[in-house]
Design a protein that fits this description.
Layout: H1 2-18, H2 21-30, H3 35-57, H4 68-92, H5 94-101, H6 104-116, H7 122-140, H8 149-170, H9 179-199, H10 210-246, H11 249-262, H12 268-300
């Protein structure tokens, strides 16, 4: 029981701190700092923290040459997901964007069925329908005011990029990496992606004041590095299924941040849309869990 309590604690810490991304990132962009600069600094700070943690834990940084290209691909995918998420904040607001981003398990299920011929279960189909109903409610909004279509497309690209990232990790040799090593290289390479991108559009922008540095430090350490390390702990203690379910706390925290910190409106459509998306994702995760348990029992009884 103590192990489970630890796992649930770290899973909640991971999802809650991920939900705080906008709280520290938006004040930086509101000061006129470009998305590329903020994200470059964010991932550089996170990778530095993870490197120090790995040194403390005496973990190896070694990788094979044939793994470099794969890690570069993962870095780009993670960077694209973060880039589209930041862009979507400008069009949708924090709460709505973070809620739609949480659809990535649905994308994973669909992509696995299309490219790896995994059978789509009835629960998956039901989850997809519920998820799209949730999005339609968010899109319609209250009083007939619709969401920006560009924002919807942008956040769906973010969710799709993250879904592809997850599939590549699960279907490649890097799945045998420790969580710390994989996250370190992904963060470092994502930072490199934004450094190159920033150099083509005028260069990195300097942070203007102490408040900006504090926000950047909290974004890098609390809402990135700590979130990733906490997720590793949670998976180790209670497994990926429980961790994924407790990940539902992320959009809930993000909605609260949007309402309390950025004066975003909380409406009936937003609440119902969030609930439907959380139900859809939970249905995907739980059905996958029970399907695997049933398959394992069939093997054992043969």
């Amino acid at each position: 029981m103590n192990t489970h309590v630890k796992g649930y604690f770290w899973a909640c810490i991971s999802s809650a701190t991920f939900g705080l991304i906008a709280l520290f990132a938006l004040p930086l962009t509101q000061k006129g700092i470009s998305h590329d600069s903020v994200l470059c600094y964010r991932f550089a700070g996170a990778s530095l923290f993870l490197a120090l943690w790995m040194i403390f834990k005496k973990e190896s940084f070694a990788i094979a040459k044939k793994e470099m290209g794969l890690l570069a691909l993962l870095g780009v995918l993670y960077a694209l997901s973060a880039q589209y998420l930041f862009l979507s904040y400008d069009y949708l607001g924090v709460g709505t964007a973070s809620t739609i981003l949480f659809l990535y398990p649905v994308f994973v299920a669909v992509l696995m069925a299309v490219f790896f011929k995994e059978k789509i279960k009835m629960a998956t189909l039901a989850a997809i329908l519920i998820a799209f109903l949730g999005i339609s409610l968010l899109y319609k909004g209250d009083q007939g005011k619709s969401l920006n279509p560009l924002g919807i497309g942008t956040i769906l690209l973010s969710a799709l990029s993250y879904a592809i990232y997850i599939i590549v990790v699960n279907k490649s040799r890097v799945q045998h990496f420790s969580g710390y090593k994989l996250t370190f290289y992904v963060m470092a390479l994502s930072s490199g992606y934004f450094l190159i991108k920033a150099q083509t559009t005028g260069g990195l922008m300097l942070l203007p004041d102490t408040v900006a540095w504090v926000n950047l430090a909290l974004l890098s350490l609390l809402a990135t590095a700590l979130s990733c390390v906490a997720m590793v702990f949670a998976v180790q203690y209670v497994g990926s299924t429980a961790t994924a379910i407790l990940g539902a706390l992320e959009p809930v925290v993000a909605v609260a941040v949007g309402v309390l910190a950025f004066n975003e409106a909380i409406t009936g459509s937003l609440i119902l849309g969030v609930l439907l998306i959380l139900i859809a994702v939970s249905l995907i995760v739980l059905s996958d869990y029970f399907y695997k348990r049933l398959a394992a029992q069939k093997i054992l009884t043969k």
